[in-house]
Design goal:
mainly alpha; four-stranded mixed beta sheet
Amino acid sequence: LFVSVSTRALVYNNNNMAHLSPIIPAWESTILVLILLAAINIAVIEALSTPTSATKILRVCQSPGCKDDGAISTLEFLSAVAPPGVDVVKGGCVSLCGSGPVVELCDDIDSMAPIKKKRVKGRDVILSLLDECSSKGDEGEEIEPALKPYMRDRLVSGYELSLEAHQAYASKDYQSAVDLYTDAIESGRKPAMILQEARSAIISDTTTDDNEQSYGYPEGVRWLVTSFKNSCRSRLSLNDVDGARRDAFAATVFSQNCDGDAHECLAEVCASSGDTLGEWQAVKSAISQYERMEEEYSKPLPGADAPARAAAVKKRSHATARKRELGFRVAKLERELRAS
């Protein structure tokens, strides 16, 4: 396990090692800490790229009315804690405005007779819905859940702490944000990785409308990656460069090197410590990820609904804008490197 985690999680990948090789030796102790944390927490990162085969689909309405009622929060909460065999996807309007967030419980992605659940928000309601979706065996027997009850409580607690941390971060209360992110990650990291491993153990023949898994990493660990990134930036604001560096590396690890913004975090750390070469390398890696993102979301989406196509356009535009801005930054850094 130690060899597997250290190899898969921390070499980034063969394409990006050329950019990052001078950075990594400078922070060997940081990397060793991350390897040990990943091994201890049974974080088999290879599992993160494998999609799941769903026995149930939860379609969360993303109409303007349901969004006003909290549908985005419901979608993110469900994605973070959904058990193996339950896929959480975005759904279109189901004409129940005023009763949102509305979640459709389906046996398959194209189900024409879903069970509609109204006002699905809040910890108790969401967990009750997920319990209703618990997987059963071929003969209807109950399957042991991937997480023991106390581990699921830890996951939910970590996720909810991350939401509090986001509020502190948005209000620029960086010390409170760091404290809350630290508690959130400590509580939720291990159960989140165990749960994702269990999801990924199911061989998939299921596809989703919104193409979320074609590029990037599973939605179920997105909250964890976001927590690492925001914690990194909070620590930088508090001049805790070493702590920010650990969080930045962790963000790249847990995103499987598929998050351009995680590389931007690393670039910010290098900039704050006067490491121009390291900053240049991290920015180049970020551009590489945005290029992949731009390519992915430029692909046609046959059969996709209007919201899915609009979301793809938005993501492609974001990747294009970031790539352009970072291109100017690379040119500036290259001039500085030549001058030195």
